[in-house]
Amino acid sequence: MKKNYPSLTLSHLQKLCRKGEIRINGSRTSATASLVCGDEIKLPPYIVEYEKTPDVIVKKDAKYTREDINDILKTIIYEDDEILVLNKPAGLATQGGSGITKHIDSLINIALPEYNGNLRLTHRIDKETSGVLVIAKNYDSALKMTTLFKEQKIHKTYHALVYGNFDDKKKEGIIKEPIIDMTSKVNEKGEHEAKYAFTEYKVLDEAFGTLSLVEFKPKTGRMHQLRIHSSHIGHPIIGDFKYGKGDEFAKLKDSFEIEIPRKLYLHAYMIEIEGKPLIKAEYPTHFKKICKYLNF
Questions:
Q1: Is pTM beyond 0.90 here?
Q2: Catalytic residue status for 61
């Protein structure tokens, strides 16, 4: 499969097997199944999407153009024998899903075909969040990164612009608030049970009584954790229309003399990985624009 469909990631291949979309001799199979002469492999009809052409890669209803490939290569901020680290642009998803036609999981493998489709995500960040994203170059490296995450030997730091200023006694602390995510257990009533999540925060700067620059260090990895926790303490992240309020963004735009892009102002700024140098990702343009305006 990897030879004939090099842009198909192993994780997606395994998923197709689990869902029964890839079958051997009419039966369900695993990605590690051995083949013998005469076996018949049934593939889903859209599998052709993962074949390469010289300049354009077709993926469902979208096309990865040469410009897409060049743009993603420009985001590489660190590389060694084990990993690549990207400064992910805001608005680009890390993985495929409903309604997503372009994502890093497939694009990075298309951009770097010499890795034979073996580049793997080691963690995820939200589509609208920018910043540090670690890609393993092979299975062993991915396993190592996963282990380091579990052993808490990898530490991530995020920066965010949030609404309001903080009280003097609350400019730093720990947020402990349970969160329901896709990994939460389901109780007898069929309801997902909340799991505790922990986030350290510290105010780095503030201005005009209207917004603050805050550093977040998540100690757990729940979905939308920082967005939920920031909103929980009364300071939603600017541009977060799921956990914040739309009228707050409108008021902020009216109060500023510059145009504020309608984006999420959350950035994965830094990552510390045991045995590797400290890696930092430059703020995206929309984030820098406000920081410069406020002289942060």
A1: no
A2: no
